[in-house]
Write a structure and sequence with these properties.
With 118 residues, the chain is an alpha+beta fold. Helix content is 28%, strand content 33%. The chain has a six-stranded antiparallel sheet, covered by helices on one side.
């Protein structure tokens, strides 16, 4: 049985699982001028982040549940901040988990990473 809520990642793409239904893929890529990030849903651009003060995003056309939009926004924000801060994969996951919990989205926190092999 599939999880009720959660996230699934594959490279830069991710899917939001809400009420056992999967929404995605959400994705991002550098803008053509490398001055920001373009945000995409199912291959269609819906927004852009140029700086912390210049953010545009509009997902209305996709008619997604509000919770899916909220979770996707948190994932995009936390991921991009972590990338720009040079965080390791483990630090990115912790940063994302912290922000999901802070926004009341703890049901979507990804499983903890497996322990490092020593």
């Amino acid at each position: 049985m599939s999880p009720v809520h959660g996230l699934r990642f594959e490279g830069t793409q991710f899917w939001v699982v809400h009420r056992r239904r999967e929404y995605g893929p959400f994705d991002y890529e550098w803008s053509r001028d490398f001055d920001g990030f373009e945000l995409c849903y199912r291959g269609r651009k819906f927004g852009e982040i140029c700086s912390p003060d210049e953010i545009f995003a509009d997902m209305k056309e996709f008619r997604l549940p509000t919770r899916v939009v909220q979770v996707a926004s948190v994932v995009f924000g936390a991921t991009l901040v972590s990338i720009l801060s040079g965080h390791s994969k483990l630090e990115r996951r912790r940063h994302l988990s912290r922000h999901l919990v802070d926004q009341g989205c703890e049901a979507f926190v990804p499983d903890p990473p497996p322990p490092a092999k020593g």
